[in-house]
Structures are given as C-alpha cells and as structure tokens.
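S.,

Sequence below, as promised.
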Amino acid sequence: MNDDLCKMSAVDLVAAYGDRSVSPVEVTQAALERINAHNKAYNAFCLVDDEGALAAAKQSEERWRQGVPQGRIDGVPATVKDLVLAKDWPTQRGSRTSDRSQLSAEDAPAVARLREHGAVILGKTTTPEYGWKGVTDSPLTGITRNPWNPGHTPGGSSGGAAVAALCGMGPLHIGTDGGGSVRIPASFCGIFGLKANFGRVPVYPASPFGTLSHLGPMTRTVADAALMLTVMAEPDPRDAFELPYEGRDYSAVLEAGIAGLRVAYSPDLGYAMVDPEVAELVAAAAQSFADLGVEVEQVDPGFENPRDIFRSHWYAGAAHILRAMTPAQRELVDPGLQTVAARGEAFSLKDYMNGALARSALAVTMRKFHQKFDLLLTPTMPTPAFSLGADSPIGPNGSSWDDHSPFTYPFNLTGQPAATLPCGFTSKGLPVGLQIVGRNYDEVNVLRAAYAYEAAHPEHRKALELGAAKLNI
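The prediction came back faster than expected:
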C-alpha cells in the first residue's frame, strides 16, 4: 500500500498527473488497498467497485498520457453516499426494504458531473436508513465506527463518507445534509465539510425530506472542497429548485483573503449547552479570526431554538418515506425511524403550515442578521464524538439526535451555506469542529474564511496527520 498517495489532496494529484510523476492507476490501486485494509474495522463502504474503478483509472491514465484530461478532476478517486443514485449500482439507503438487484439507470446530477470531469468512482459509503439520524448505523449495513475511537460514532448521516475521507480512501466524497449530515460527521472525524446553499448543487431525485436536504463536498482540505464544489455545482435540468448557474470557479477565490469582513461569534446560539472543552477550543478559533484582519463580535443571531420547526418538516418527511411501505416492510425498518415517522403521521395540516410559516420567519431573521455580519461562527457540535449504541449522548442534551445537533439544523431551515473544519482536539484525542455560516448564496466567503483559518493553523492539520499515522490510517 502506498500511504503517500493516499495522503495526497485532489489538487496535488491533478498537478502530479499533469507532470506524470503519479499515475491515476497507482492512486486508485492505493485507495482500493486502503479500503481493503480498513473497511472491515470501520465500515465506511457498503459497495466497492474495484473492477470499474481500475478501468476508469486506466482510461484516465491514457488521457493524461495524451495530454487531454477530461476535466478538472480527471483520475481523482471519489465516493458516493448511498442515498445518491449512481448508474448501474443499487441505491439501498441503508434499508432492508431495498432491492439490491435493482440498479440505477442513471447518475444523480452530482455523480454525473464528477464522471464528466473524469473522477474515478470507487464505491458507495454507508448511511443510516434513509439518512434519518445523526449517527451512522442501519439494519442493512450495521455500525460505522470512528477511527479516532472505534467505540465512538463518526456521526451521521454521511458517516461513511467522513470515515473514508479521514482514512485516505480517496480525496473526494459526496455527502448529503438535511439537518447536519455533512457537518456532524465531518466535525466528529476532523475533516472539512460544506453544506452548500440550497439549490447550489442540483439534486435528483428530490429528497423525501424536501427542501431541508442539501448536497456538499467532504474532503480533507478546503481547497479540495472548493474544487469539488466547482464541479458539483454545474447545472442539471432535473432539479426544479437549482439556483441559476454562475459558472464560478471556487478554487480561484480562496486566496483573496478575508480582511475587512464582519464576523459574528455565537458560542451557543443563545440556547445550546456546550461541552467545556469544545467551548474553549471554538472560542480560541473565533478569537484567531481577529488576527486574520476581520472584526469579530460575540453576539447571538436572535432566534429561539427552532427544533420544533425542524421536526415539523423532518418528521413529516420520515412519515412520507414509510407511507408507501407495506406493513411487512415497515417491520424491517430501524425502530427509531418508525418512531419518528409515527410522530410525523400525527402532525396535522395546521401543524405543518405553522412550521412552514415559522421557518420563513427564521430565514428572515437570519437575512436581517447578515445585513450587519458577513459570517457567523459557532461550534459545529456541542460535544465531541460519543459512544456507540445511542442516537445521542445520554445527558442534558436529550436523547434524540436533533437534541444533540443544535448548531446545524437551523441552517438547513434557512438554506444558508455552512461549513465545518477542525479547530483542535479534546484531552481524549477527539476532534472538534468550528462551524462557519455564510449569508444566503455566499459560499465564496465561507470557503475563503475556512481556507484562511486552515492556512493560519497548520497545527490542526499536522495533528490530524500525526494522529492518523499513529492509528495506522
């Protein structure tokens, strides 16, 4: 196994392919060997296509030999979360109600764009059933574990993608985020994750969780996420809600700096309970933004916990998923999802419409807030990764997964771009994430801020690399 190849970023791989110092076939073989070595322990993948990946890598190698790469990421290994369609593969969604023999006839937009740019798709990553919760286990694929502590969760629902990124099983990973499902596992695993603005990355088919659901890149570096978003954001007519295509190259904006931006820092959004170690690390990260030339003011955005608004949408989506199932199929479903769906069934039309109106009011509150502030900084999660066996840690934060994710789901309701990146480790060696929230449609400043912070704090990346080496991942 060539560990050095597995540590290379997508940006560096493309450069190395160009000068022929590295081959897409070598890189793909190294990624597949890494998957073979670690997937049994951590369960990041539910499908691996060795043959297809190597065939795609050989085609890429030939294009690079001829000096005609197919696109921005030709030959770069990538993965797809198993909620997202990939042609000729099943989409099982972590559910025993799925039919593994039913193969998709087409790629989802994000997968199609990656293929068009020459990416080598390695396989599909694990998810809880239908991506319904913030940890990654399912009746179909079992438990996905956090490499920093295999007795802890990697978070969810894009937990398999986060583990794959951390372990060097390819540089680029497609995640979905309906209430934090990119940011929660990215924070728990110590990688970078971006929930792009709703509509920025085209989606097809539409999520059963409706307009809560976003797509975004999960990577080890900010630059890789910017490159991946540039590709994923290309238009697709199958998404009725996609934003007008801007043709923006997100990689080109990273080094413009953030001096002069107005940044708000909220340690708890006015209502969350936060672990003291997490609070200390995030406060230090927020303070360091002043050294990057920005104004930082500690202030809450001014809304109460919108958990009930979120549940009026999320639980209704869960009910919609199970509504089409037979009684026998429902018996196969994760008991927790059954419970949430039952609560969703109990919502009245009045409940749902009141939730929709409250959601609109929340979005207006944030738009007014961002008239003064370009960015909002918060913890990504109130605690580090917790033990397996529960959907949230036992304690004052409650027992439902959304009780334990107070910083993420508000910005699914508002549709804003939000990212997480590592800002340190707890005394027990678990990573902590800093969340950066941008005003609607402004992924640029989110990425710039994340890139500036990452560049100013190489010690966080070094700690991740040293820790990964110690864990032999």
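The domain at 11-308+342-470 is CATH 3.90.1300.10 (Amidase signature (AS) enzymes).

Coffee later?
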